[in-house]
Amino acid sequence: MLARPDVTAAELAGLNVKGLIFTGGPSSVCEPGAPRCRAELLELGVPILGICYGMQLACQMLGADIKPAASREFGRASLKVLADDPLLRGVPGETTVWMSHGDQVHALGEDFLPLAATPTCPAAAVRHKTRPVYGVQFHPEVAHTPHGNEIFVNFLYDICRCGGLWKISSFIDSCVADVRRSVGSDERVICGLSGGVDSSVVAAMLDRAIGERLACIFVDNGLLRTNEVELVRSTFAEHFRIDLTVVPAAEKFLNALAGVTDPQTKRRIIGSEFVAAFKSAAKSIPNARWLAQGTLYPDVIESGESLAGQAANIKLHHNVGGLPAELGFDLIEPLRNLFKDEVRRVGELLGLPEQIIWRHPFPGPGLAVRCVGEVTPHRLEVLRKADNVLLEEIVAAGLYRKTAQTFAVLLPVRTVGVMGDARTYENVVVIRSVDTADFMTADWSRIPYDVLATISNRIINEVRGVNRVVYDISSKPPATIEWE
């Protein structure tokens, strides 16, 4: 279970908890007002694992000194195991971990033992000498820490003595039962369908729960990829027997976005326009009380929402922070606590076709957040054509399933070029491709140079208005996957 930072020891004792994990977070333990737990939790006697900020907090509460690191660590780091300990059993002596921190333990004091180190972080993993308190400065929960699962297995099963009884099929059964309890027998649910895996899984789950009382709405907002409307129509006509309404709303969205360049403002506008479109379409759907969305946990976190209310607002997702206060519907978000890899497992169990389950994610605000700067019909068309060329070549090279998300970005920047011995002054297109499982962290894809060369050549030759193509080699963190 998730608990707020100020949960009491008595509350946890009443739940018969077997262990605690202090999670990471955007704050610094050195700052006034940074989230802290009660010291009494350390007296429960159950094992504790601190991760990143959670490690710093636990160590500080037990006498260690935390300071800003001389060298920040973001992305991959080389870890060397220093001691044989149950927490790191099965982890190679030298391995790779994923870091994201600016502070670190400066002095452990006499009560902690260092278990592992990186070249710039001498206390990358620690254990208290007399208490069952452990800490790791890196992030074992992400796919880019290859042996992170072993660390969790060691902590949960061997140190906390927990049992692994939960299955993803149990999650589906629970969600279906919750929907049936919540939705009245005479009420209908509107599902905001995008054609991506998240909303498709929600639609399939609701179809199982309430059948014909589900009505799916696909909003053509003018911010879609090439042939997106036709693809969604054909896909859902073939694989689902649901009520699908396509709402033509491109003119409204583009008018509302005219002259807007701030990415957060774009997302708020798009969120408001989406809800307006749903409300309008709902008038023809009797007893439509509920709105279902494919909101995932990374959407929630990046939008600044958390149980503690203290997550950093990285970017608003139109289906979280972008929604207006007066929604007009009750929300159903069955995937809100899942990551992308878990959603795909749910989709497989629900029987969704492979081309839906493994389709690369497409942001709810669409091309508006890949068209950096002002969104205009002309700039969108340039971006669509460039993105279509990119995906064609990624598929042709057999890389589509080997990359997690690949797309083009149009910058509000023009550069000098030369074509046919003449000077050009045209747009820059960025190629972005990442490898990730959970989409909370990501590394840039190592696309072969010859494939990149073909993509660049085709975009510049076939998309008028572009004379330069660049490749984004930033990881997340410190960058995000999308540019806005």
Give an overview in words.
- Residues 303-307 and 309-324 have low confidence and may be disordered.
- 39% of the residues are buried.
- Helices cover 31% and strands 25% of the residues.
- It is globular and about 65 Å long.
- By secondary structure, the chain is of the alpha/beta class.
- The longest helix is centred in the middle third of the chain and has 20 residues, at 263-282.
- Strand 9, helix 6 (228-239) and strand 10 (243-248) form a beta-alpha-beta unit.
- The strands form three sheets. Strands 1-2-7-6-5-3-4 form a seven-stranded mixed sheet, with helices on one face.
- Helix 12 (377-396) runs antiparallel to helix 13.
- It has helices at residues 9-14, 53-61, 148-159, 168-182, 197-210, 228-239, 250-257, 263-282, 297-302, 340-349, 354-357, 377-396, 449-462; strands at 20-22, 48-51, 65-81, 94-107, 112-118, 121-128, 133-136, 188-192, 214-220, 243-248, 288-292, 330-332, 405-419, 422-435, 443-444, 466-471.
Strand content: 15-25%
The strand line-up of the biggest sheet is 1-2-7-6-5-3-4
The biggest beta sheet, please?
7 strands, mixed
Separation, N- and C-terminal Cα atoms:
32 Å
If helices are DSSP runs of H or I spanning 4 or more residues, what is the number of helices?
13
Topology:
Layout: H1 9-14, E1 20-22, E2 48-51, H2 53-61, E3 65-81, E4 94-107, E5 112-118, E6 121-128, E7 133-136, H3 148-159, H4 168-182, E8 188-192, H5 197-210, E9 214-220, H6 228-239, E10 243-248, H7 250-257, H8 263-282, E11 288-292, H9 297-302, E12 330-332, H10 340-349, H11 354-357, H12 377-396, E13 405-419, E14 422-435, E15 443-444, H13 449-462, E16 466-471
